[in-house]
């Protein structure tokens, strides 16, 4: 399984982000490309430990049992629900969001597994650094596919 802690996997993700343009359109979902970049950046903030959204009731009840469904080699389903605090509805500046996300990805990758947050994921609960690395890659891959790159 791919992980953002592998430098070659990170480079692939960055190259795909660079192929986006402010005119990229989603194949599914409601976010535009700048909002998607801001959404992914907000997810990075959780993994880095900059933010710690509270766990929702659904996550507390089924999050642990859902881990095997998420942490596998299958792509994420389109139009899946997201953590409410990561919903981006306001206008964002494409170039600024793209550069911000790339920097956060590179920082996370360079910091390595030992710098992952120990705060539980808002849905899945406690994650190992390995799960964070795989989850970050899978989340980014999902949204880049959403915009055709």
UniProtKB/TrEMBL annotation:
<dbReference type="InterPro" id="IPR034660">
    <property type="entry name" value="DinB/YfiT-like"/>
</dbReference>
<dbReference type="Pfam" id="PF07606">
    <property type="entry name" value="DUF1569"/>
</dbReference>
<protein>
    <submittedName>
        <fullName>DUF1569 domain-containing protein</fullName>
    </submittedName>
</protein>
<dbReference type="InterPro" id="IPR011463">
    <property type="entry name" value="DUF1569"/>
</dbReference>
